[in-house]
C-alpha cells in the first residue's frame, strides 16, 4: 500500500493544529478527513462507505474525551477495526493503559514527537495492521 492509498481521519479541536496536521499529511500524499470534534468524527465514520486507514485522535476534545470516543467506536462493529492513534498533550499511566485496553493502537505525547515522527509511526502501524489482516 503506497501513500496515495492512505486515508487518515484527524480529530483535533484546536483549529490551527488541525489545519497544520491536515496540510502536512496532504503534502505527504495522504488523504485526510479533518474533524474538529468527536461527534462530527463518529457521525462521519458511521455514515461513510469508505473508512479511513487510521484515526489520529486528540485525547481532549471540546465535546468528549478519548475514552468516550473509543467507547463509541467499540460499540459499532463497522468501526471496531480502524486503528486509533491517540496524540495528546497529557498522559497518565492509567489513561494510556485504559485507552490501549479500549483498542487504541498507540498513545503518543505531542511534546515528545515531531509531526514527521507521528506520520511515520502511523504509516508503520497501518502497514502492520494491513499485513496482519491479509495473512
From TrEMBL:
Record-given protein name: Response regulatory domain-containing protein
Domain Response regulatory: 7-125
Modified positions (4-aspartylphosphate) in chain numbering: 58
Keywords, ordered alphabetically: Phosphoprotein
Endpoints of the signal sequence: none
Keyword Phosphoprotein listed: yes
Any Gene Ontology biological process: phosphorelay signal transduction system
Amino acid at each position: 500500500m503506497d501513500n496515495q492509498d492512505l486515508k487518515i481521519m484527524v480529530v483535533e479541536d484546536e483549529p490551527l493544529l488541525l489545519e497544520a496536521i491536515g496540510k502536512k499529511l496532504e503534502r505527504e500524499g495522504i488523504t485526510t478527513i479533518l474533524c474538529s470534534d468527536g461527534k462530527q468524527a463518529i457521525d462521519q465514520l458511521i455514515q461513510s462507505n469508505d473508512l479511513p486507514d487510521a484515526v489520529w485522535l486528540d485525547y481532549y476534545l471540546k465535546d468528549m474525551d478519548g475514552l468516550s470516543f473509543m467507547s463509541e467506536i467499540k460499540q459499532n462493529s463497522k468501526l471496531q477495526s480502524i486503528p486509533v492513534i491517540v496524540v495528546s498533550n497529557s498522559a497518565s499511566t492509567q489513561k494510556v493503559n485504559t485507552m490501549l485496553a479500549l483498542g487504541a493502537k498507540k498513545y503518543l505525547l505531542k511534546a515528545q514527537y515531531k509531526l514527521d515522527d507521528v506520520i511515520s509511526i502511523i504509516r508503520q502501524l497501518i502497514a502492520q495492521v494491513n499485513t496482519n489482516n491479509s495473512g
